[in-house]
Design a protein that fits this description.
alpha+beta, elongated, OB fold (Dihydrolipoamide Acetyltransferase, E2P), five-stranded antiparallel beta sheet, 7 helices, 325 residues, three-stranded antiparallel beta sheet
Length: 325
Amino acid sequence: MQSREIPKYLISRRYISVIIVFIVAFSALFMMVYKPFSLAVWFSTSDTLRFSITMLFYVAAIVILIISRSAMYALQDRIVMNINRYVSWLMCENVAISLLYTIITTTLFPEPGLTFAMVGTRALFCVTMILAIPNSLVLFYAAYRAKCEEVEASAYQLQKLREECSRLELMTKHEKELREEAATQAAANERSPRMINLYDNNNTLRLTISLDSLYYLESEDNYIKVHYKHNDKIATYMLRCRTKSVEEALRDTVMKRCHRSYIVNISKIRFIHEEHRLHFIALDDDSIRRIPLSKSYYESIHSSLNTMKSWHEKMKTITDGDRGE
């Protein structure tokens, strides 16, 4: 359990910002209600000198947290942040802040009978108490979010399997032959599988999804956000993998790169518009925000759209001819 990798939400930019703001607010409230360093309290809002030192200490503690979490974010690709390392990292933050407080207390506000070890021990205990609550709350929330996305993705796959089983049960032999013939023809023309498998960096299968439901992929740090339709709503699944790997797996499908951070399903494109010399893609679901289209991918997307349009027109002509006969 201790060697299991922690949820990546905890070291994403968003959660680092949230936890620091949360810690600032919580610690300020905590110190107003409880005197945290009761062996040698020098915090004050009435004395100018002590108030200035109090503010400097408070700011320095926040800077320590910012530097620590930024380093954690920067090193996430070099080290696997498991539970043991994460807790040890947090304890190092506590020790650094406690050491800063102890040095200020014993240097500027010495009191008879108080040793460096006594002040430091008490400070470490209280700093750990102050930081443990917001860290734990964010940890539980991140785990909850990750579990919700896994359950949602599992529900989607289960629903697709049930629908497929129902269709197979209702098929006659003739319908099955027609379906296989149509699937073979579509594969020969589009070379695009109806279902695709998405793997993480460890080559573990994480999601099997229908191309008809897939709208676009969004690259964010070391993750890919998979946006797909489930129960008539756009859902999102976080997949830890490289964009290049996913693009390679989707090479012969309707999923095309339109921006360094986006891969879009061209069959879902409603129109492309220009605004202030920038191009944007509007998909056929109004709940999805517009997606940027880079100049370097503009011609490629237009070519793919034209190819798809020509193929559909050709298939329509063949179908209409068959009906005429």
